[in-house]
Amino acid sequence: MKELRIHGRGGQGSVTAAELLAIAAFRDRKYSQAFPAFGAERRGAPVMAFMRVDDEPIRIRSQVYEPDYVMVQDASLIGVVDFMSGLKDGGILLINTPKSPEELGLKGNFTLRTINATAIAKEMIGRPIVNTTMMGAFAGVTGAVSLHAVIYAVKERFRGVAGDNNAKAIKRAYDLMIEGVSS
Amino acid sequence: MKLRIGAIADPGTSVVNLTGGWRTEIPRITPELCIRCFNCVIYCPESAVKYSDKEGIYFDYDYCKGCGICSNECSGHAIYMEMEEK
Amino acid sequence: MQVVEGSYAIAHAVKRCRPDVISAYPITPQTHIVEDLAQFVADGELECEFVPVDSEHSAMSVALGASAVGARAYSASTSQGLALMWEVLYNVSGMRLPVVMTAVNRAMSAPLSIWNDQQDTIGARDSGWIQIYVEDIQEAHDAMIQGYKIAESKDVMLPLMVCADGFILTHTYEPVVLAEQIEVDDFLPPYEPEYFLSVDNPLSFGCFAEPDKYMEFRYMQHEAMDRARIKIKEVADEFGKAFGRYYGGLIEGYNLDGAEIVLLTFGSIIGTIKEVVDREKNVGILKIRSYRPFPLVEIRDALKDAKVVAVIEKDFSAGFEGALFTDVKAALYNHINDLKMLGFVVGLGGRDVRADDILEIIKRSKSAMDGGITDEWQFIGLRGELL
Fold it and tell me: Which range of residues forms the domain containing residue B46?
């Protein structure tokens, strides 16, 4: 089983990202589970969401304490939220920031990848809503879900032009991560 | 008789129940004072105050509980209550 | 199978049951269920009278009235909302109306908490409603369909609440098989009540019962609960045959063969407990599906070879102990003499129940089995530094 913890701020679509990744994982013929850290959500407050993916049905329902992957949607959470808590040795930390991993200076036995998802989202979607772009990056970095499944899940949720634009942003982020370039 | 689930009862049970027996005071009417406002007919909780062209206002003493609402509501002070000797 | 939110799965199952009247007042974490149902009605997917109301008291009252005229009625609530339904719950069960509701489990205020525990439905335990607790989203979906069949059965005629943990089940996305209309139509016949309100054949429901009759009406509810014991099992079997999914009748055992320690509980923590128990030797799980009627005989039978039973629950009766713990002890008294019984309270007000908490419970149970001293009833996961 692989476990993902998403950190963001209320209104950034962290919960939606977890849900859509669960749908994508199921599309990849795996079992999946997604749920928010149930809080009194409000715009701007730090929030968390979780996603599990496995070849077997998933029974555990506690929150994720030792994630394989951590995704941070908002660099302003650095120093505010302990998003590295419990991150497994050899795990992957993916942060939305224009800075390079070296500039962030986060140390530990994990792979740190950064992506300027805000810039991609602004360019491709026209709004700084980064959750779908981050899903594309997540697929590229981790391989836990496939690119086509992520695009399928997002297009199911956002129809028409919005879906197409989101799909472009996902593809761009995915490609950047595959090429190993932190933009 | 066996009970039915849910305390579900057939209609008309209040017809069988002659509430006139509860009465201690009995309504009487002075017909000359009655202005035909029918407040007594409207307000009687047992529909025991009746009217006919021939008899004017009269009471169904099988069901009248003697509550006195008719007397209280009577615009012409025509209805009054008196102790009933049984 | 498709990945949907728990609330959606529940709403979908309710839709498939073709309710005639839905009345509910939104309250977190029940809201998504009734929002989805309102959407089905608005989109014309469900032909049904959706009655918006001013409160949960009114919601249950509307369900009562609808059921009394012979409609299939549904409502849903949680926590304070369920508490506000309180007197109507007794009216519905007393009038023997087979209303089915989803009781989403949430903590009671104060302190204000929107998060999950089971105190709310435990409070409604004695209201004469059948209570079915579910483990996962699929079971919540399936229990709604089973629920109407049980409740509307001629020899039961009792209201039924499906108790599903708030957020943990209602707000989680996972793969679920959503029932097809034709499957549910084959399984669940239309509701045909023996008695119903009608202008052509007037009746009075829930009449005045003087002391010479009241006790007999209450006894009849007790007898109906006894018959519900059989019906719940029958319906679970029928459902298994029709849909290929089975969750046990009144109870369900897991790894009970040779289990010395049995963790007895209900609700969504069973998934996490299964995950833990799979890595342990001689530890089994006894899941309570039907809390009312209470599976006395089944529990006695399932625990006859156990050495320790650890009752785990998200509720307690202030001044005593966990409600389920009390009930289990009462069921076993005079029947199993050398079984150690321990009670554990976990997860109040949304405190996450982790695998480590379950391991701690198993550790304390083992210690008790080996003659160690442990409290008979205790809280797990308390933050001592705050006390």
Answer: 33-86
Burial class (CB in 10 A: 0-12, 13-18, 19+), B10: exposed
* Residues of chain C with C-beta less than 8 angstroms from the C-beta of A62: 272, 352-355
pLDDT value, residue A181:
54
Any CB–CB contact under 8 A between C266 and chain A? no
- Does residue C317 belong to the interface with chain A, where contact is any CB pair within 8 Å? no
Is B80 among the domain residues? yes
- Of B61, B65, B86, the closest CA to residue B23 belongs to B65
Query: CB distance from C274 to chain A under 8 Å?
Result: yes
Q: What was the pLDDT predicted at C337?
A: 74
d(CA B64, CA B56): 17
Tally the domains of chain B: 1
Chains touching chain A, criterion 3+ CB pairs below 8 Å: C
Domain extents in chain A: 2-178
pLDDT in tens, A110-137: 999 999 999 999 999 999 999 999 999 9
Residue C353 at interface with chain A, using a CB cutoff of 8 Å: yes
Q: Let me know: does C76 contact C114? Beta carbons within 8 Å.
A: no
Judged against a pLDDT cut of 80, whether residue A183 lies above it is answered with no
Interface test with B, best of C97, C154, C158, C220 (most B CBs within 10 A): C220
Entry field: residues in chain B: 86
C26 touching B, CB under 8 A? no
> Do C108 and C120 contact (CB within 8 A), yes or no?
yes
- Nearest by CB: C173 against A19, A38, A65: A19
Query: Is C250 in CB contact (< 8 Å) with chain B?
Result: no
Does A61 contact C274 at a Cβ distance shorter than 8 Å? no
∠C65-C70-C72 over CA atoms, to 5°?
Answer: 85
C-alpha A25 chain-centroid distance: 13
- Kindly state whether residue B78 falls inside one of the protein's structural domains: yes
Give all domains of chain C, ordered by start, each with its CATH number. Answer: 2-243 (3.40.50.970), 251-386 (3.40.50.920)
The answer, as to whether pTM is greater than 0.80, is yes
Do the domain assignments include residue B64? Answer: yes
CATH of range A2-178; options 3.40.190.10, 3.40.920.10, 3.30.505.50, 1.10.1040.10: 3.40.920.10
DSSP H/E element including C7:
helix C6-16
Q: Are C18 and C41 in contact (CB under 8 A)?
A: no
Residue B86 has pLDDT above 80, yes or no: no
DSSP secondary structure letter of residue A137: H
- Record: contact B11-C204, CB cut-off 8 A: yes
Chain C residues close to B5, C-beta within 8 Å: 96, 157, 195, 220, 224
Q: Is residue B83 part of a domain?
A: yes
Chain C nearest CA to A160, separation (Å): 21
Positive or negative: CA dihedral C334, C335, C341, C347: negative
Please say if the pLDDT value at position C76 is more than 60. yes
Residues from chain B that touch C204, judged by Cβ atoms under 8 A, are: 8-11, 13
Closest CA to A183 of A104, A125, A98: A98
